[in-house]
Design a protein that fits this description.
The protein has 510 residues and is an alpha+beta fold. It contains 13 helices and 28 strands. A hairpin with a 2-residue loop joins strand 20 and strand 21.
Length: 510
Amino acid sequence: MEVKEKDTIIATKEEEKTLIVTNNYENRNHPDVLVIFGIFVFIFILIILISYCAFTLVNTKNDKVINNVYIKGIDVSGLTKEEAKEKISEYINSSVPEEIKLKHDDFETSISTDQLSIYFNVDEAVDIAYSLGKDGDIFQNNLAILKSQFLRTNIDPGFSIETEQLRNTLQDISSKLPDKVLESSYYIDGENLIITKGSTGCVIKIEETANHIEYNINNLNLQNTSLELITEQQSPTEIDLDSIYNEIHKEPVDSYYTQNPFCVYPSENGLDLAISLDEAKNLLQEEKSEYSIPLKVLYPNVTTNMIGTEAFPDLLSDFSTKYSASNTNRTTNLVLAANKINGTVLMPGETFSYNKVVGERTIAAGYKEAPIYVEGRVEDGLGGGICQITTTLYNAALYANLEIVERRNHQFVPSYANASRDATVVYGAVDFKFKNNREYPIKITCSVSNGIANFKIYGLKTENDYEVEITSRVTGTTKTAIYSEAYKTLKKNGTVVSSEVIAKDTYKRH
């Protein structure tokens, strides 16, 4: 019994010794593991720092666009600024044609892209592309570069266009649609007020069509396609006889002039309805395309013609065009239109309207069939040739330095005038207007004889008058179109004072 207890005590002491040894071993090795782990973490962080620094250093010296960057859908990754600009410019230039084709049913036309001054800000877009991964701090730049490995960036260059020119061109095209709306209108023919009823037709929705065209230009969706003109049906304005009456009714005015200061007061015929206003309104209840209401003219005691040419002492301008006298129908039309205008006096600030002065070209008015342009073809039409009178008067007004209010060019360059030196009219749709912007009245005289149509404009010259020079030139041609411009230069004693573009036109080619 004593032996066993002694053995147990010895064993217990041996186990305690072993436990102490083991604990000493574990306590001795624990710091070694922490050190190794710490060294491993330090090396890992050091590697990351070195890699990050190397990554940053490489990116800092990068002079090219980072990965996954596009301009207008074109990849510019890895390109220098100059290479990117060249690539995008070539792409845009090849995607914008010389003219934008437009259509409305069977009607087709086009707009010159040169006239619209289309501009894409390629430089700014490339600058933005180049700055990605370079314009922030180190961390922002590196993050942007890392993102570019997975995410695509597309930059759309700034875009601009001559919106006013586009809308004016669309307005012009709208007036030439084959199914255009014709507004109700009126004119005075002798002792009759002629009122023509308008007809429903199409007009171009200017804003919507302009936005549609701009959208397709910006998206470079122009090659081998025709854009549809956005139109709507529009009814003409209802005939307002009260307004017409207020416009035409007037009392006669005697003409006179003074010489100190020199001033002309032209005569004016008075005008009134020959029937009552209610009777005239009853006439309009009939379903007709044209109404004739009798007028009575109230004549002044002294007319401007009685004063004589001494009231208009100075010749302001003189312009002529040639015509073929052998074409009797066309000559008749020229004479009729010229006679309507001859002797017209415009007071300062007054506007001349060709359609209002000449009136509608009808058989009753004596007009004959002669060649005209119809939808790109030459056909016989009533009143053919009178646009030569319009053109001759237009040039006379230009040389008198009068303000042109409304003017349209022909579909084709006419034989009697150079490109951008012509003016066309279509009764009820296209007018020619100019304003007497002088301080003194002007008088228009014209003659048509011996193959020459001539216009003279008289008035009173002042120190503010200039020598006027009108020139024009063809600026470009395509297979289907001719583009031209006209210029007005003002000179004083032979020295150029100003020069301006007065017309930018597009003609169809024969």
